Structures are given as structure tokens and as C-alpha cells.
Amino acid sequence: MPANTSTLDALLKDKYGPALRNELNDATPLLDMFQDAGKDINWQGRQCVEAVLVNRNRGSYFTAEGGQPPTAGNQQVENYQIPMRYQHGQIRITTQLMKSSRSNEGAFARGMRLEMDRLLDDMRIQRNFAMWGTGAGIRCLLSDDPGTGTDVDVDSPMNVAGTVNGARFINVGDFVGFINPLTGTLRAGGTREVTAIAADGSDFTVAAAVDTALGDNDWVVKAYGTDASLAIANTDYNHLPMGLLGMVDDGSYVNIYFGLSRSTFQILQSTVISSVGALSADVIQRGIDVAAQLGRGMPKYHCMHPSIRRAYLRVTEGDRRYTMGNLMDPDAGTKAAKDGQGGVGFGDVKLKVDHMAPYGMWFGVDPRSAYRYALVDGEWADETGAVLKDVSGAVDTFDGTYRIYENFSLLSPNQSFRLEDISATVVSIHIN
Fold it and tell me: What are the helix and strand counts (H, E) for the chain?
């Protein structure tokens, strides 16, 4: 019998690549935009208070000669109350891993450094998700009651009605709880661990049967673990920073905006144009014009899901021309759209795309009143003098906690606008 790779397998060595390859999408476009365009405010205390002018002095009118002067009026000033939001990330590592991966010969990456650095990237992904929402942390909605089964059918990610791919903000290993939307309380029966995600995002599987009555359109939120008696304080629900869907809103999603009612103070409402259907230059310009009339808005960013950008490219298709810079390689006017951000714009404002954006929406954002409030900019907890702490009851095992305390705002939401219910083709994919 001739010698071959099977018979001499024990003598052969494996050849490994030079480094760990990252296959994950770590892009955080909206978070980057707010951090680049907004202003940072550092403070200590329970909350930040911002004064906002919501009405004029109405004590003026035109009179006849010798007529009665008007009743005195006054400027109306109210206060935003901006609470702090707390994000924590946790790692657990053993001494054995640290020592066995301390050289390039022993591992693709040093175990401790990999866990610490990647945790910060993973936390940025969750912050970017938060930046698109309302602060409620609603990952998706139930599309029916799963009964006593383990398959959970979902739709409407981020609580935006009429969407597909509901599970796109759910991942294997997540712990989820179910919120009754009528009461804002956790359903009985506790939380569950996610074990699988459907390829089309229509459902996910949990490790144990959901043995309590759930309802259609129940809210799905993340939780700290599996617990039959979990307190709502240990879930994401209402614990996220304020996001764009709540900032650029007319009260449909967030009526009480940092303590002030948008129903009472209509000046705090953004321009929202619903039932758009087919996208057009007219409806985009209408959003810009009304925001300018309401709050002297000057949107510097147009933010959207990639599907909305594709819908916009269809609008401009008839006006596209060949770029003549290279006659041997004409691009039919598409070179500007060759990558995720590209150079496509409306007027002189470039489109900013983000795969975490709500489906069917176009946000025109004026960042002049964008603020980030930071109590802890980002740090490893080391009050005991060490970043890594012994795990009680475990040998050679250590925990580390990273924390960020922050919130975000648009103090003048009437300077921005939102288009919704835009017809677009969504590609149902799951992105970790």
C-alpha cells in the first residue's frame, strides 16, 4: 500500500494563516455621524436639564388710534429633562487562555486582548442600533402567539409597522423577554435564550418552550439572562439612549420627548410625511421645505436603509449620464454609488446609508442641535485597583466590565424631517 496523506496524517503539520479574519460587519454610520457632527456635554448628576423656547410673546396686535393696548404676554420657556443611560459589557477569561495565547506562535490573536478589544466594537454595534430607535429597545414584534412551542414568529423590527425580516436585530445567544404593549410589563414565564435564526428573518428559535400566553404584536427586548422571575429593570426595555426615530418624530413613536409633550408643544414635532409610496424628488423637497418653515431647518444628512437609496437611484435613473472621464470604461453615471456610502446625494447633501436603519424611511437631519451627554465616556471598571476580577467559586477565572454612560438628543427636532412608507425592495438577510 502506497503512503498517502491518510496513512501519514500524524506526521503532517497544519499551515495556519497569518492572522484572525474578521467576517463581521462592524460599521456604525449613524453613531459615527452623531459623534462627528454633534456637540459633547460632560456632566455629573442624575440628569441634564436643557431650556427650550416653545412659544412667543403673544401680547401684540394692531390697534386703531387711541385703541386699547394688548394684554401683556411673555416668552414661554420649558425644560428638557435628559436622563442618563447606562451600557455595560462583560468579558470572562481564564488564566489558561491568557497564557496559551500570549504569543503569535500559540494563537492567531492574544486571547485577553481579543476579548477586550472586540467587546468595545460589539458595544458600538449596540449603540448604533440604539441610535436608530426610540429608547425603548424593541427589537421586533411578535406576529402571533407561539403557544407552547419554541419557534417564535416575528415581524416589524424596531416597532416600525409593515416591515419584513423581523428577526434582523436578534442574534443566536441573545436572551429575550416579551413585553405586553398595553401595560409595558413583562409577560409571565420569564426570558428565553435564542438558539437559531431563520434565514429570511421571519422567526427565531428559543431553547425552551414559551409556556405562557403571549400576544400578537408583543414587543421583544433583550435581557440579561434566563430567569422565570426576571425584573424589567434587567432588560433593555426603556433603558436605551434616545435614537433618531424618537428625535425626528411628530409624537407617533415618542410623544413625551425628554419630559415635554409634543401634543402640548407642537413646536417640538418634526415634519413627518406618511404614505409616501413611490419616492420622488417632490416629496423629498417637501420635507426639506416644511422643516425650513417650521424651524429654519437645514438638513445636512439624508439617512436611510440601503433599500431606500436604491429606490432613490431609480428616481434618478432617467437623468443618469455616462461619465466621460474614461471613454474606454464608461460607468453610466453609477460610479458614485459603487460602495456603501458612495457620492449619491440630493442637492449638495450626500446620502448616508446604514443597514440598521428602519425600512421604508428617509430621515433628513439637521445636526446643529445634536448633542451627546456623557457621564462616562467609556472605561473599564477598576474601582478595586484591577480591571480583571476573580470570579467567586471559580479557579483561574476573571471577569471584566466595560461601561459607557451617555444619552443623545436633537434639541430642535422641528429642524429635521422624516418620510415613511416608502416603497422599496428589501433584501432579507441577517447581519451579525
Answer: 6, 22
Residues near 191 by Cβ (< 8 Å), separated by ≥ 6? 175, 176, 177, 223, 225, 226, 227, 230, 235
Residue type (1 letter), 315: V
More confident residue, 318 or 69: 69
Interval 100-119: pLDDT, tens: 656 555 444 466 777 888 88
Of residues 69 and 123, the one with the higher pLDDT is 123
Contact of 128 with 158, CB cutoff 8 Å: no
Closest by Cα among 166, 155, 148, 152 to 213: 148
Give the contacts of 208 (CB within 8 A, at least 6 positions apart): 150, 192, 193, 226
359 grid coordinates = 425600512
106 contacts 262 by C-beta, under 8 angstroms: no
DSSP state of 219: E
> Which ranges in 132-239 belong to alpha helices (H)?
none
- What residue type is assigned to position 176 of the chain? V
For 19-65, where are the alpha helices, taking DSSP H only? 29-37
Is 2.40.30 the CATH number for 136-239?
yes
